[in-house]
Design a protein that fits this description.
About 50% of the residues lie in helices and about 5% in strands. The longest helix is centred in the last third of the chain and has 17 residues, at about 110-125. The protein is mainly alpha-helical. InterPro entries: Tscrpt_reg_Rrf2, WH-like_DNA-bd_sf, WH_DNA-bd_sf. This is Rrf2 family transcriptional regulator.
Length: about 150
């Protein structure tokens, strides 16, 4: 299993905001620190704002900041918000127009096994908060703190 680049950037962005909590950070700063293109990051920021994780501030001194405390943001919640629309396998696609190509779909037990595994994966991530990712992590703070 591999998470999408957007999910990875979302977590990097949230960690950047958490390390610099209380400050409005600029998209350019986040992009540079997270080694991301500003255009790609803009899409991630938009989705994070829609999901209520961050607030964006317009204007000359605009940017973004956390909308919630780091200890209230569960890693599983973030990952779900970016990954839930991407089916793990074709037989798990809930889109009625996307008929599975697999001839075993009606008799295969893998779908159930994958569902159970995904639930365990998300449950594990739900036990972690953004605060867990940044608190006591001096190396991360050195890399992401605004100078």
């Amino acid at each position: 299993m591999r998470l999408t680049v957007r999910t990875n950037l979302a977590m990097r962005t949230l960690m950047y905001c958490a390390v610099n909590e209380g400050h409005v950070v600029r998209k350019q700063e986040v992009a540079k620190s997270c080694d991301a293109s500003e255009n790609h990051l803009a899409q991630v920021i938009h989705k994070l704002a829609q999901a209520g994780f961050i607030t964006t501030v317009r204007g000359r001194s605009g940017g973004l900041k956390l909308n919630r405390t780091p200890d209230s943001i569960r890693v599983g919640e973030v990952v779900r918000s970016f990954e839930a629309s991407v089916p793990f396998t074709e037989c798990m696609d809930n889109n009625p127009d996307a008929a599975p190509n697999c001839p075993l779909v009606d008799v295969c037990r893998l779908k159930s096994a994958f569902s159970t595994a995904l639930e365990a994966f998300y449950a594990s991530l739900d036990s972690l908060t953004l605060a867990d990712m940044v608190n006591g992590n001096s190396g991360l703070r050195r890399l992401l703190a605004v100078a």
